Amino acid sequence: MTVIAPEVSLDPDLIGAGDVTHFWRVPRYRDLDCLRATFRRHAYARHSHDTYAIAAVLAGCETFFHRGEQRYAPAGSIAVVCPDEIHDGEPYGGGFEYRTFYPSPELMQEIAEDVAGRPLSRPPWFPHSVIQDPELTLAHAQLHACLSRDGRWTSEMEQDTRLIDFLSRLIVRWADLDALPDLRYGSRGILRARDYLDSHFGQEADLAQLARLADLSRSHFIRAFAKETGLTPRAYLLDRRFRAATRLLQQGEAPGDVAAACGFFDQSHLNRVFKARMGVTPGAYRAA
C-alpha cells in the first residue's frame, strides 16, 4: 500500500495501480481525521473507533461487517458507523474507491443540538448502516475535496459552511436523536470482563482470569464474548490497544513509545495492527 501526497493522489494512473491511501487531519474541527483511499486488496480487521466513520463510496463496492450482519455499500452510497461499533471492510468484486470522515462524538452532538434546537443527552445515532442519498453523497464528496486543499484554495468560511451543511442534513434525514441502543449490552459477567480489558489493555490478559470474572468456563467464555461483542477476547484487547494508540499518535507521541505504552510487543507489531484497522501506518497517522 502506498501513502502519497494529495496532489499526487489525484493521478489516475496511480489510483489504478493498487491500494492507495491519503490521510490528513483538520485540527480545528476537533481533530477531524480524513481518508481518501482506493482498495483492491486491503481488508480491514474488525475494530472500532472513538469517533464516527462516515464514508462515501465513489466507485466499486465495499462490503463490511456491522451490527452482526454483512453489509454492502455500492458506488453512490454512504456508510455510517457510530462510535464503539465493531466493523471491518474490504473490496467486493474488483475493488472500491471511497472518502471517509471520522468526526468526534462531541462535534456530532454540537451539530445535532444546533439542528434540534435543544440540548441532547448524547450524540446522534444512525439506525442505517448504508444510506442511499445521492444529494448527500455529492455534498460529502464536495466537502472532502474542500478540506483536502488544506485551506490553500478555499476559505475557512467555505469549509465551515460545507461541513455544517453536510452534517446537519445527514442528521436531519438519517439520525435518530432520541433512541440509542445500549452498546454496553450483554450479561454482567461479560461486562465485567470487558471492563477489565478496557482498564488493563496495556497488560497481557489471562484467559482463565477473564473467564472467572464472567463466571464461565474458558470455552464458554470465548463463545459468549464473541457472540456479544463481535470479537474474540484477544481481538477485543487488540482493538482497545489500537484505540489507545490512535489517541497517543494524535498527540504526537512517537510510534515506538506508543507501542510500549499500549502493550504491543514492539513497533512492528503496532504497525501491523494499526495498518490493518486504519488503512495507514502509525507514522503516517501521526504526521497528518
Automatic annotation (TrEMBL):
<dbReference type="InterPro" id="IPR037923">
    <property type="entry name" value="HTH-like"/>
</dbReference>
<dbReference type="InterPro" id="IPR018060">
    <property type="entry name" value="HTH_AraC"/>
</dbReference>
<dbReference type="GO" id="GO:0043565">
    <property type="term" value="F:sequence-specific DNA binding"/>
</dbReference>
<keyword id="KW-0804">Transcription</keyword>
<dbReference type="Pfam" id="PF12833">
    <property type="entry name" value="HTH_18"/>
</dbReference>
<keyword id="KW-0805">Transcription regulation</keyword>
<keyword id="KW-0238">DNA-binding</keyword>
<dbReference type="InterPro" id="IPR003313">
    <property type="entry name" value="AraC-bd"/>
</dbReference>
<dbReference type="GO" id="GO:0003700">
    <property type="term" value="F:DNA-binding transcription factor activity"/>
</dbReference>
<feature type="domain" description="HTH araC/xylS-type">
    <location>
        <begin position="191"/>
        <end position="288"/>
    </location>
</feature>
<dbReference type="InterPro" id="IPR050204">
    <property type="entry name" value="AraC_XylS_family_regulators"/>
</dbReference>
<protein>
    <submittedName>
        <fullName>AraC-like DNA-binding protein</fullName>
    </submittedName>
</protein>
<dbReference type="Pfam" id="PF02311">
    <property type="entry name" value="AraC_binding"/>
</dbReference>
<dbReference type="InterPro" id="IPR009057">
    <property type="entry name" value="Homeodomain-like_sf"/>
</dbReference>
